[in-house]
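Intended use. Records like the one below are meant for learning the mapping from a protein sequence to its folded structure. Do not use them to infer anything beyond what is encoded.
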Amino acid sequence: MEGYHATLEDPRLPVLAARLDAVEPALRGFAYEGAGMGLAALDAVTPGGRRLDAFVAGPGAPHIYPVYVGVGLAYARLRRTPESMLARLDPLLGWITADGYGFHEAFFKRRRHVERHALPARLTDTGRRFFDQGVGRALWFSGGAVADRVAHLVTGFPPGRHADLWSGVGLASAYGGGTDEAGLRTVRDLAGAHRPRLARGAAVAAWGRRAAGNPTPHTDLACRVFCGQDADEAAAVVEEAARDLPLISVEPACELWRRRIEERLTARAAT
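Structure written out for the chain above:
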């Protein structure tokens, strides 16, 4: 909320960046998430608004993942479909806005999207996968980071959605923390066949924190439990997987990227 209000009070980039960087490192990504939400909202009500573009190209670049999550939150509030805005965003990471959209809907419209398991009608298969990742993140926080409770919520969804929900749980538990090593091990055990998705989510969280320069002990712990390696090693897998992605493909680049991450984490765990 501080990041969001800072954006509305003074969106000039040097002023905004200084206020966001004053937040303690462990929580700074959440401040940038709020700024992403605020800038997207300002651009939506300003003809030709390009504040978000300038922010992502400048001080927001190291925090692009949480910034785009915040953009997705704004789209949900503004009732805009994330995919309608993809052309303006990073071609690899723009889909993260659908994650933010899913988090918003699961957290603030719980009856519809968690109890009734509703999906938005205007999303493609890729959009729905990222939407469900956001729902998984929301389940981690709304479930109080209690492993049994979170697993119960996940398994209540149709089986075809479990993989992406667990990916969101892995991302949220690694980035935001909330439990100890025993709790993380319980999460890993309850994920069952979806452990690779849990690992992928944790590795992406580590990559985001490394890019922003705000590592935390709980992220490192989650990577050791879920990925079998420390946060720096997991982040390196994510970064390496993004190299040389095909410019033209039947599947979006983000899907290829996520699959590569999962395959390389699984291969390393087997050695």
